Amino acid sequence: MEVRYSVNPKDVKRFTTDELRDEFLIQGLFQSEIQMVYSHVDRMIQGSVAPTSPRELKVKAGENMGVSYFLERRELGIINIGGSGKVDVDGTVYDLVRTDGLYVGMGAKKVVFSSDDTKNPAKFYFNSAPAHKTYPTVKIERSSITPRHLGSIETSNERNLYQYIIPGRVESCQLVMGMTALEPGNMWNSMPCHTHERRMEVYMYFDLPETDVVMHYMGQPQETRHVVMHNEEAIISPSWSIHAGVGTHNYTFIWGMVGENQEFDDMDNIKIPDLR
Ligand SMILES: O=C[C@H](O)[C@@H](O)CC(=O)C(=O)O
Ligand SMILES: [Zn+2]
């Protein structure tokens, strides 16, 4: 598992394009083997797999988690963005079609991902955070969520925000997770933008044609930088950073947050003209 350490915003001011990308951008998602990045920002683990044979979530020998199984001290949120697949949690099998999610509580010993059709594999995207208590494992269907409708075509940011793992819907220790889909003709996500010093966040962009990109904006509000992102790439957003983007085409993204609180609306909103 790749390890990323946290960086200081004072240092990031002087980063080159490659340094920014090495530190925050996560590429090469959805391979047949499980891919994971362990971020020391709030100890969030970001992972993905497009299984062509069953793949078990394991702590590999030599990995510095200090536990005997992956979810011994962690919780897990999963969303499938590919073909139909299954997640087997200690013998209980959850069928996940495209956009279905699953919360897995702390203490589950064996989590196995598989695809129903290896020619059209499932694409499981996941976030995992340290946990202190077991909350029930719950399957989440996107159709059961009433989305928050945000933005408008006039400002090119009309979108539906689906909260999958959020207090009152699916309880968790700290993980909050969901998906935001832009309406056709709308290119901006999360603009007007915000930070939340209380939580870090990871974004994963998808449903973007291979010929298009998202210009993802990060950095302190008065020290912004962009990272050019392609389909099915993720980016780490430390608590001090904005996270917003504009595409050359509309797209969808999964967001996952961990940190001090689970108050979705606890954001430090930034007025657009105040950005630098
Ligand atoms: O803190 C909240 C996160 O940045 C996202 O949920 C925002 C988002 O998906 C959107 O505005 O479209
Ligand atoms: Zn945010």
UniProtKB/TrEMBL annotation:
It is an enzyme of class 5 (isomerase). It catalyses: 5-dehydro-4-deoxy-D-glucuronate = 3-deoxy-D-glycero-2,5-hexodiulosonate. One of its GO terms (biological process) is pectin catabolic process. Signal peptide: none annotated. GO terms for molecular function: 4-deoxy-L-threo-5-hexosulose-uronate ketol-isomerase activity; zinc ion binding. Its EC number is 5.3.1.17. Pathway: Glycan metabolism; pectin degradation; 2-dehydro-3-deoxy-D-gluconate from pectin: step 4/5. CDD domains: cupin_KduI_C, cupin_KduI_N. InterPro entries: KduI, KduI/IolB_isomerase, KduI_N, RmlC-like_jellyroll, RmlC_Cupin_sf. Keywords: Isomerase, Metal-binding, Zinc. Its cofactor is Zn(2+). Binds 1 zinc ion per subunit. Belongs to the KduI family. HAMAP family: KduI. Catalyzes the isomerization of 5-dehydro-4-deoxy-D-glucuronate to 3-deoxy-D-glycero-2,5-hexodiulosonate. PANTHER family: 4-DEOXY-L-THREO-5-HEXOSULOSE-URONATE KETOL-ISOMERASE. This is 4-deoxy-L-threo-5-hexosulose-uronate ketol-isomerase. It comes from Propionispira arboris.
